[in-house]
Amino acid sequence: MKVTKAKSIKISKETYNRLSEVAGELQIKLKRPVSLDEAIQYLLNLRGKRIIITDLAGCWDMSDKEWTEIKNSLAEAWKRWKTPGNTS
After folding, report:
1. What residue numbers bound the domain in which 39 lies?
2. CA distance 13 to 7
3. For residue 39, how many other CB atoms are within 10 A of its CB?
4. For the chain, which ranges sit under pLDDT 50?
5. What angle do helix axes 13-30 and 36-48 make, rounded to 10 degrees?
6. Which of 39, 41, 60, 85 could be joined to 23 by an S-S link, Cβ 3.0–4.6 Å?
7. Number of domains in the chain
8. DSSP-assigned letters across all residues of 18-73
9. Residue 37: how many CA atoms within 13 Å on its side-chain side?
10. Closest Cα partner for 23 from 6, 11, 41?
11. Residue 63 to residue 8: CA distance in whole angstroms
């Protein structure tokens, strides 16, 4: 990234810490060093982006136990499902 003009801004310690966390998460995701400026750019880009369900793919590290519980819960729900006009 080419910086043409640098500006100083004042932020609270809490904001700095949270921004540092974002930068750390980006470093893990991108597997390279990330500056605070890049973290701010990332957050600003997120602001205008609509999140769709497929953006969440792979975000949840589900255990086998969780999968079994979800699958069983869905099976029970489908057993109780009634379509309009079908009261049996």
Report:
1. 12-51
2. 18
3. 20
4. none
5. 90
6. 39
7. 1
8. HHHHHHHHHHHHHTS---HHHHHHHHHHHHHPPP-GGGGTT-----HHHHHHHHHH
9. 8
10. 41
11. 45
Query: What's the confidence (pLDDT) of residue 33?
Result: 95
| DSSP H/E element including 75 | helix 64-80
Nearest residue to 40 (alpha-carbon basis) of 22, 13, 17, 28: 22
Cβ contact 14:27 at 8 Å: no
pTM above 0.85, yes or no: no
Question: Does residue 75 form part of some domain?
Answer: no
Query: What tokens appear for 45 in the block?
Result: 């880009």
Contact 39, 23 (CB under 8 A): yes
pLDDT at 1: 59
